[in-house]
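Model the whole thing, not chain by chain.
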Amino acid sequence: MKLYLKLAWRNLLAAGLRTWLNVIVLSFAFVAIIWSQGLYRGLSRQAAQAMMEAEIGGGQYWHENYDPYNPLTLDKAHGLVPASLAKLIEEGKATAILIVQGTLYPKGRFFPVLIKGIEPRQKVLLFPSKYLETSNPDEIPAVMGSRMANTCNLKIGDTVTLRWRDKSGAFDARELRLVHVMRTTVQSIDQGQVWISLDRLRKLTGLENEATVVTLAREANWAEEIPGWSFKSLDFLLKDIDEVVRSKNIGASIVYIVLLSLAMLAIFDTQVLSIWRRRKEIGTLMALGMTRSQVIKLFTLEGALHGVLAAAVAAIYGFPLLSLFARKGLGMPEVVDSYGFALGERILPVYSASLIAGTALLVMLVTTIVSFLPTRQIAKLKPTEALRGKIT
Amino acid sequence: MRKGEILIETKDLVKIYPMGRHELVALNRVNLIFRKGEFAGLVGPSGSGKTTLLNIIGSLDLPTSGSAVVMERRVEELSHKEAARLRNEHIGFIFQTFNLLPYYTAYENVEFPLLLLKVSASERRRRVMEALDWVRLADRASSRPAQLSGGECQRVAIARAIVKQPAIILADEPTANLDAENSHNILQIMAELNHELGTTFIFATHDEKVISYLKRKITLFDGRVVKDEIIS
Ligand SMILES: Nc1ncnc2c1ncn2[C@@H]1O[C@H](COP(=O)(O)OP(=O)(O)OP(=O)(O)O)[C@@H](O)[C@H]1O
Ligand SMILES: [Mg+2]
């Protein structure tokens, strides 16, 4: 093996410019894979962090009928807060949220919304609930996410009509005043919903002491069985994020799959050309006593070494580049927001050793396979014909 | 290995190439024996089968029928691996076009067969330098083929063939790309090696200069041996 490595190495370097071109393209793919994977890991980590802070805390109890994917079930998805959770809420280790369906009528248009009630003085979530506090019983302050405010074309201070049904099914309507617009990376507390004080919502709907969801504080560490309620762990609640990240990842993968394919095409082409141009050399190697499988091994190794060189080259410029990037992060432009989940935030990519090792392994494996495929030509080559410079 | 021992024996060797609907008989019942220490040449017009015969003896090609026994092995029965091993251990090749490995220095070219034979590093060094001495190129050890003249390239090729001290060296038109002076030069070197080491040389050639060095001249015509003479 050492001999083949030495020979392959020498041949590869002797090919000069062509080798380096292949290596550089391959190293781009290498860096692009690590770059984008690290970015998405960072994104995923940050999104999860933000979601825990603003929405899901350390886990949630859901009313047994609550199904976030089916708003029509909301009518029945609320109940009295169980005593054990009420105690946690009192201790500041949990907070209750009531969710009711309604309709907003901003400036002559209308939007179906979820009305969410949250305790203004809660400290469980990093949520701007304090704006919902008021001493004026005639005013209903409301908070919205910036996306929702944009959609409804509302500014702070605007009023808007909200209609809902109370617990007996009768329609009612009141004016809300938008007192705060929150910029958040967490879409699930923003789009299609309006937040008001929990007390107010309970009164408006007649659902005294009821809730749809009880969110535990991060440090609550509590997961007791409660009849009529089901505990949702962080793993469960963060699953959506993983899925969103994964689906976005597929988009980004296209970039490096294209780069990788380009590099592979170049290496394949180099191998085919090199075997064709060097058939006389192959014949000579056979005459000197190499078997076909030894020649195949040599040429495969020669191609596969592109991967090793690419890793080295990628390390030279990729290491400073990626570590700079990991320190400075990537400012997400606002446009990303329209379909992504960041909002003028910096994403700090996460590069792990396993990511780098895994990428290296992938690149080497693919390079080796691509290098091997054309060498099967050699197996069909007769020594006499190779020596005459012919290929069949 | 005693002098005069039989190294190669062909029996009714036939090689037929299919040529569309016809067949081309390149070798037609060739019966030949080569002994240790011979300095023999296959001569004859172009297309008479010289290269074909050398290739079969060198286990680079298979006969259509008949047999060739080389170093006590039946060439037509060898697997690829066994044939490669026979070449590696016992047969050196010298080609018309030199066929040096272009990226390797003269030293590395000569060293190559020893690497395949897994000879130790110190032994390799000794034998490579000895072989380069034989062809008087010790001072050009670190040159690459592109930096060497045709005659020097062919001398490196001779060193590469001789370095493993094979029993047989097969040389197909070794002088065809060389001028008269270089031709005589390499022929003298080969005659010397034949004399000193007892290596058997078999040439395929039409070159009168080569023929003038031969101790045995075998004439082929249309794939048949038509004359086999000892020259004293
Ligand atoms: N692979 C092949 N396919 C078909 N015919 C072949 C092949 N190799 C050789 N021949 C034919 O076999 C015959 C003998 O060829 P060979 O190369 O042995 O001749 P040669 O005596 O070496 O000729 P030269 O002096 O020109 O080198 C020729 O007619 C040649 O055309
Ligand atoms: Mg010939």
